[in-house]
Amino acid sequence: MKLPLDVVGIGNAIVDVLAHADDALLAKHGMAKGSMALIDAAKADSLYGAMGSAVEVSGGSAANTIAGVASFGGKAAFVGRVRNDQLGNIFRHDIKAIGVEFETAAASHGAPTGRCLVFVTPDAQRTMQTFLGACVELGPADIDADQIARAKITYLEGYLWDPPQAKEAFRKAADLAHNADRKVALSLSDTFCVKRYQQEFLHLLDEHLDVLFANEAEIAALYDVKSFDDAVKAVRGRCDIAVLTRSEKGAVIVTDKETIPVPAVKPEKLVDTTGAGDLFAAGFLYGLSQDRTLGDCGRLGALAAAEIISHVGARPEVSLKDLAKKHGL
């Protein structure tokens, strides 16, 4: 019999390609600074050719979160599609090497493993151009009922809310989790996603979610409001817990009865903001799975986010479990 899990994440299985760039390069190729855009294979090849020296690391938003949960010492699993190619093998090796359960079968044909080209400007902003590749083939058949039932929390990635069969996979996972009396969480991922699927996300929030993760821009876009305070009012009571991140302003945790401010943790140095939201979610979800107070969950998230923005790449470079102990958490 397989062991219980703290968190299972479902999302895009992607290899990140990170390189430093300047604003001129972004403008030349029509990239909106600080955003994420989906691109096709031809565009991916063109932009890769324009990149400078790059670092390739396994990524994907939910996968980064799950890597963070594992670094805290949590029992974690990931569901995502790769091709049986070089990048797919790299992704599988990297995530299993950190102790994450990853059993999704690799595709033997079709699109190659997805990749995200990340352009990091001197102000540490990251601009992402994503070719999803094999990721879009994820479907209901990839959701294992036993695995979902074993996990205290099922975490869904908003970036994957595009292909119809992926939506069905999300709904299946959410239903299985609730049938097993487990929690379901979603990250809105990007305003790009929210603007495309505002009404669908609102329905998902009301019908399927216990925990919502969003930054200031995403939550404002979801409710079509201009101020953060109005967004807080709008989301209160729509799910059990809304976790709203605000970069250097920290975060706010919203329930139907209280609002809990969480101060940001200052990083040793600011290098690359890639993965900050992913790792905040990792700390929060790990804390929630261990029945920590919401305040402590937020502090674990802030600590993980500070670690990740102190270096290039969206996977922890130190043990988050040790870091938490060092900070009394």
Could you characterize what this model shows?
The chain is an alpha/beta fold and 329 residues long. It has one domain: UDP-N-acetylmuramoyl-L-alanine:D-glutamate ligase (3-Layer(aba) Sandwich). It has helices spanning 23-28, 41-50, 61-71, 86-97, 145-150, 164-179, 191-196, 198-208, 216-223, 228-235, 276-289, 294-308, 320-326; strands at residues 5-10, 14-20, 36-38, 55-59, 76-79, 101-102, 114-120, 126-131, 151-157, 183-187, 211-215, 241-245, 251-254, 259-262. The strands form two sheets. The protein has a nine-stranded mixed beta sheet with strand order 6-5-1-9-10-11-12-13-14. Strands 3-8-7-2-4 form a five-stranded mixed beta sheet. Helix 11 packs antiparallel against helix 12. The protein is globular and about 50 Å long. 49% of the residues are buried.
